[in-house]
Fold:
Amino acid sequence: MSTRTPYRVLFVCLGNICRSPAAEIIFNAVAAQKSLSHLVKADSCGTASYHTGSKPDHRMLAALERAGYSYGGHRARTFRRADFSEFDLIIPQDEYNEQDILSLARHDEDRSRVRGMWQWFAPEETERSVPDPYYGGPAGFDAVVALLTRSMERLVAELSAKLQA
Structure:
């Protein structure tokens, strides 16, 4: 864990327009609700550069709004090796993005920062990754927001305990 404040979390998906910006927005909102914004901060990126500079998908923004979350101006960017040094925890949304990130790791310290999002899923969850809603309808985006909301509660609680110990 880094000694700098705040503790930096990076969420990663493929294009950085659906799952990872949703994770970033939800994480920061949950941290703020628990008065932890001074201790933790999230960002997001993608492993592919398809959407670099774009806003999140309008369907994801609508799903986030329906769930009570606000868009903060995020623009898509691509994962870079420097992210290993700039973030304390890197959370890919699925196993493919995890493999892509780990292939860029320079050493064990880089690899030790990477933990799949599924590690914070509730025990009763059947998913092993955050499903990509891009090719589906609104229900898929709502399901991703709900899954991430449940998971962020667990993640923020874990980090709170670690950082306030």
About this structure: The longest strand covers residues 7-13. The chain is about 40% helix and 10% strand. The chain has a mean pLDDT of 95.
